[in-house]
Design a protein that fits this description.
The chain has 13 helices and 12 strands. With 401 residues, the protein is α/β, with parallel strands linked by helices.
């Protein structure tokens, strides 16, 4: 008997669940795109994004997904042939590097696959050996959506500072902006990238480059840029519509403004703490499940896990029946695996992801965990029973503390 006949819960790491208030904000006619209300909304969004980033820098808004933000950052800051260092702890750092390759940059990689975190001794060795400062940029991802590895961004900056290296420091925070802590100025980030569809709780289609003074000055030295990605006219428009290089994405802006209103009402510190509590609720369930059977955290140590998404792996065990059963019978969609290819992972079927980002509360996350535990029972996956109970005990204590 199929018991699922209500609202689908997509526990996917983006697009995340969109609040009703945000959906409702889009149900209105398009405004005048040349100023007035839309201009006020635009500047409000840019100010709120900078506050969330923890910066006095400026924000550039693009009509694009995160991959567009990658290209915009490269286009504004580097010339063909420039050497950049790519730190990859999953899928997305590597893919950003591949884009840099296509754009003619000289890329070198610190590649750690899907399971290992950045080795800071490796980074220090490369930076210390770059005596002539040939490396013009360091590109890394804060939380890799595929592996769920969280990179210590502040520690990367410390390595650069210890060796007095002038490379621009670019951080992709698309997966976890508004979920994991971010202190852009304090951590010495020159360019921070994010997008609308994850912790910012809006539909896909808006991406942001948050830039400091150093990045602005370096960009002025680059004479050959893509006309669309060039952030110069967007930062200093002679007419309002030049902020968007044309027609503004009106209804996405309505949505983002409504989402940022929700974020401001809850408060940045509360949001970060809520994500930590909900992430740990998921982890408490997995800690029990993994004691028997094939299930394991992809990221072994808690300090290295994103608070936005958790990747679960079961090497050499097919989890497709579990994922299918949970979706069909409980109405919960789990995130597909990315990057877990090959025989050890049944070509992707031995991993799944649980998103705990954005518009989420205790009963929603407990519903996801309970659905998974039911699925483990129903599909005969070996595991230790009691994950839900452990998660509930932790959550009750965390809320009361």
């Amino acid at each position: 008997m199929k018991a699922s006949n209500g609202k689908i819960h997509r526990a996917l790491p983006g697009p995340s669940i969109i609040p009703d208030k945000v959906l409702q904000a889009m149900q209105r006619p398009a405004p005048n795109i040349y100023g007035g209300e839309l201009e006020n909304i635009t500047h409000s969004i840019l100010e709120e994004i900078a506050l969330l980033a923890g910066t006095k820098g400026r924000v550039v808004l693009y009509i694009s997904n995160g991959h567009g933000a990658w290209e915009a950052a490269i286009s504004n800051l580097f010339r063909k042939g420039d050497k950049v260092l790519i730190i990859s702890t999953g899928v997305f750092g590597s893919n950003w590097g591949k884009m840099a390759d296509k754009m003619g940059l000289n890329t070198i990689y610190l590649e750690y696959g899907m399971e290992d975190i950045l080795d800071f001794d490796d980074l220090a060795k490369i930076i210390s050996n770059d005596k002539n400062h040939e490396i013009k940029g360091i590109l890394t991802v804060q939380s890799d959506t595929a592996s769920s590895i969280l990179t210590d961004i502040n520690k990367v900056r410390h390595v650069l500072d210890e060796h007095n290296h002038p490379a621009l420091f670019l951080v992709d925070s698309i997966a976890c902006f508004g979920c994991d802590e971010m202190h852009m100025d304090k951590w010495g980030i020159d360019v921070l990238l994010t997008a609308s569809q994850k912790g910012l709780m809006a539909p896909p289609g808006l991406s942001y480059l948050i830039i400091n003074d150093k990045a602005e000055e370096e960009a002025k030295k680059i004479t050959e840029k893509s006309a669309y990605w060039d952030w110069g006219p967007r930062l200093e428009p002679s007419k309002f519509y030049e902020i968007y290089c044309g027609t503004a994405p009106t209804h996405l802006l309505f949505a983002q403004k409504a989402a940022l209103d929700i974020i401001r009402e809850e408060g940045k510190d509360n949001i970060i703490n809520r994500h930590l509590i909900l992430a740990k609720t998921v982890w408490k369930a997995i800690e029990i499940w993994q004691q028997e059977g094939p299930l394991n955290f992809n990221v072994k140590h808690e300090k290295n896990r994103s608070k936005a998404v958790t990747t679960v792996v079961a090497k050499k065990f097919d989890l497709k029946p579990l994922k299918d059963w949970v979706e069909t019978n409980t109405g919960v969609e789990l995130g597909i695996s990315l990057g877990f290819d090959g025989e050890d992972y049944f070509n992707g079927n031995s991993a799944f992801r649980i998103a705990h980002m954005g518009h989420l509360n205790p009963h929603m996350i407990l519903g996801v965990i309970s659905s998974i535990e039911m699925g483990l029972i129903a599909t005969n996956v070996p595991f230790k029973l009691g994950g839900v109970e452990n998660a509930m005990t932790y959550l009750a204590e965390a809320i009361n503390s």
